[in-house]
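Sample pair:
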Amino acid sequence: MKTCAIVGINWGDEGKGRIVDLLTADYDIVIRYQGGGNAGHTVINDRGRFALHLLPSGIFHSGVVNILGNGVALDPENLWKEITEVVSRGVAVTPENLKISDRASLLLPWHRDLDTLEEQRLADKKYGSTKQGIAPFYSDKYQKKTVMAGELFHPDELRAHLRQLLEWKNLTLTKVYGSEPYTMEMLEKWMEEWCEPVRPFVCDTGRYLKAAKAQGKSMMFEAQLGALRDLDYGIYPYTTSSNTLAAYAPIGAGLPSLRAEEVIGVVKAYSTCVGEGPFVCEMFGEKAEKLRQAGQEYGAKTGRPRRVGPVDLVATRYGVEMQGATKIALTKLDVLSDMARIPVCVRYRVNGQETDDFPFPTELDRAEPVIEYAEGWQRDISGVRRWEELPQAAQNYVLMIEKAVGCPIAYVSVGAERESIIIR
């Protein structure tokens, strides 16, 4: 069997969905192993353009089994809306090709409320949450105060469990935030409307994966966000609330005995960042807006304009190390085609000293980018499919990144479509 993880190297939004979509044909199973509906994987194929938030990006390939692992924040409401949307556009989604771990915890309605209420309380110190309930969900999970998807098959025990959680959660909603309490009737309605439709997809995915491993099935792990948003190793506290690293994939997927033999780290040819937090290489003004427009850099989930900047070799080298990447997929090289001189963040300057190392989070606010320039190629490369056909300046740019981060670049994306890829 072969196993592979597709992971983000930077702040997220690197283009992981299109790489998963490209490579899924070589795998039997695709597994989302962490994160929730705050993901935004954009896939463009013969059916059109899709922005996936919970569904694995392998859902468009017939014969591929897609799994939402136990590490995922399972939002039944948003998942069912997403399933309904892709089915309406001709995509088959059945319990045969989509399986949900019975050990995945449900993101409950109050998690989104608490996310919004806390961001409002933080005001100008907010973390830049997508307000999808992710942080409150994972907080509750580690407090052992969530409901597992498998409990949907035990309605009496589930209702008793929800009553306990309801009493506890209403204390926070009403006493801390001054918000309205939930009632059991509200939860009953929520379960009927959103949990019942997704229940047929819930099963013991651990048992399924164990059998698949014995049969030599090939598996791909799909991550959300990037290394710099990892809860432990990212730009804390401006991170997500789960572990985005490939090392966590077997645990969040549902079979800890698995290993990711290959790790493909996805890197954008320039830098983007959604949300708050330090972003050392950030560009501002007219040049930033021009790059944002050229790359259509707006969040797939929120529509928020992404912060943009040159490729950051310091952050990328750190992300490659944290992910244990064995290969890199470089995306959106075509977006830089109009630039005569391409800025590159080659080092940081911290307290007057230049460094190649990614600083501790507290020091990031004091870090400044050291910028050098690469020669641009100034011609359209979106139709190129062979490495040798790329302009020499474009080849040099790719090779410069490859050398600086110490990891081979195996894929170069020159467009959003599935076939717009150069395989080295």
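The longest strand covers residues 341-350.
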